[in-house]
Write a sequence for this structure.
């Protein structure tokens, strides 16, 4: 089973998130190489976001992330539209 969205911290112990995402983007799309991805990072500088985008992430968020913002970002990456009136998520 393939993931719908990847959420990855940039500062990981064995491999940084930039290297991780380059490896993901190097695999065939049919095996998850084009899975939408969100980078989490402690830094919020413009160049940090640009570096994440260059590595292959579609979104960048600085920690701490407001939970509702994180849910919205993941839903957006997954192609879901959140119904703020209390209903269910629906495909966009």
């Amino acid at each position: 089973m393939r993931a719908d969205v990847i959420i990855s911290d940039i500062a990981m112990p064995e491999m940084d998130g930039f290297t991780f995402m380059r490896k993901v983007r190097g695999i065939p799309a049919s095996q998850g190489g084009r899975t939408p991805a969100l980078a989490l990072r402690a830094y919020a500088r413009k160049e940090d976001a640009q570096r994440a985008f260059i590595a292959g992430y579609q979104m960048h968020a600085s920690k701490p992330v407001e939970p509702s913002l994180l849910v919205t970002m993941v839903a957006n990456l997954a192609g879901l539209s959140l119904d703020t009136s209390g209903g269910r998520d629906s495909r966009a």
